Amino acid sequence: MKLLAIDCAASLCAACVYDAEAGRELGRSVLDLGKGHAEHLMAVIEEALKISATSYAGLGAIAVSVGPGSFTGLRVGVSAARGLALALKIPAIGVTSLEALAAQAADAYPGRPVLSALDAGREEIHAAFYDASMALAFGPAVTTLSEIVAIATDRSPVLAGTAAVQIADATGRAFDIGPTAATADIAVYARLAAAKGEGERPKPLYLRGADAKPQAGFILARLRP
């Protein structure tokens, strides 16, 4: 089965085609945009399909990063994945960015527990802890630096994500550190989705509300007839 993976969780707009049976990537396209995922995603997907010599009809599933990550980027990626899956009558499979970062760290440090942590601003950290078998033991959750430092100190995991160095510095101890980006390599999402198989339809993982909210002072009262 060939699987298309999509990731718009952070600054990257990424897609790759993955051969699940052979366990290898066939082609990819990645743009570092910051913003503008909606305008570029379909072209990125088309490029990945072209490089892999695959058509939409040749796909057996769609994988997508569900976050946590960019509020708008997640909506773009998940909407595209669900739309393509519906049109092609194939499953869409969600993979969290924390899980993907942990899996990429585990590739470098096999048989070790992994703590994935993303700096979410506002003195918050989005985190998940995976045991040595990559089973989820904590999270995904919103936590604080002090709380996550306590977990890291107690369990001595490999650290991954944008908050990894910050956590290591706060403990004053040496830790093995995996990827420190906001998202994992696109092929990791594809590999994890291929292993998961079909499940519930993916939806964005928002661990906190959107930054932009309506201002109550500008909401007009409903007119009564």
Note down, in words, how this protein is organized.
With about 220 residues, the chain is α/β, with parallel strands linked by helices. The protein is built from 6 helices and 9 strands. Strands 3-2-1-4-5 form a 5-stranded mixed β-sheet, sandwiched between helices. It has a 4-stranded mixed β-sheet with strand order 8-7-6-9. It is globular and about 50 Å long. It starts with a strand and ends in a 29-residue tail after the last helix. The C terminus is likely disordered.
Summed up:
The chain is built from 6 helices and 9 strands. By secondary structure, the protein is of the alpha/beta class.
| Main beta sheet strand tally, sense and closure | 5 strands, mixed
How many H/I helices?
6
Helix content: 25-40%
Query: Can you give the mean pLDDT?
Result: 92
Q: Overall 3D geometry?
A: globular
The low-confidence runs, each spanning 5 or more residues with pLDDT under 50, are 209-225
Distance between the termini: 59 Å
Give the strand order, joined by hyphens, for the main sheet: 3-2-1-4-5
Care to count the β-strands? 9
Radius of gyration: 19 Å
Q: Name the structural class.
A: alpha/beta
How much of the polypeptide forms β-strand, as a percent range?
Answer: 25-35%
Order of helices and strands: EEEHEHEHEEEHEHH
